[in-house]
Design a protein that fits this description.
single chain; mainly alpha
């Protein structure tokens, strides 16, 4: 195995790692802006590394020139596109995720559901309160 093949394998593997991390970021991050950031950065860097690996593997050829042109187009277009999408989302009123939103969501998830006995006690208490407000003798028992 030659040095060019080893270098191309390393570059292409690095590109695949960046693309996989970007996909994981899109899947796991909490809001639109974080996902947009992960996809834009990861995809751009991943494609740059992968393309450089292909150029090293092919050597100097017409295919390598085409790959370099694709790399340049992606390196210019992806940051502009992600910036435009993020700016449009911000101007349209999409909220930015904050840590306090995460705390509220976890509190909602951690709050235990009431048991049947608690539900019955609440119903009786609310019925008693309604009777006291109306002051009807029919409600009293």
């Amino acid at each position: 195995m030659s040095l060019a093949q080893i270098l191309s394998c390393v570059l292409m593997s690095g590109g695949l790692v960046f693309i996989a991390i970007a996909a994981l970021g899109v899947w796991k991050l909490p809001d639109f802006y974080s996902r947009l950031h992960a996809s834009g950065i990861g995809e751009t860097l991943g494609l740059l590394l992968f393309g450089c690996g292909l150029v090293v593997y092919n050597g100097i050829s017409p295919a390598s020139i085409k790959i370099i042109l694709v790399i340049l187009a992606v390196a210019i277009a992806t940051p502009i596109g992600t910036h435009t999408i993020g700016r449009t989302a911000f101007r349209s009123g999409r909220e930015i995720w904050t840590r306090s939103q995460e705390k509220k969501e976890t509190e909602k998830k951690e709050k235990p559901l009431p048991s049947e006995a608690e539900k019955e006690a609440r119903k009786k208490a609310s019925a008693a309160d309604a009777c006291e407000k109306e002051e009807k003798t029919a409600c009293r028992s």
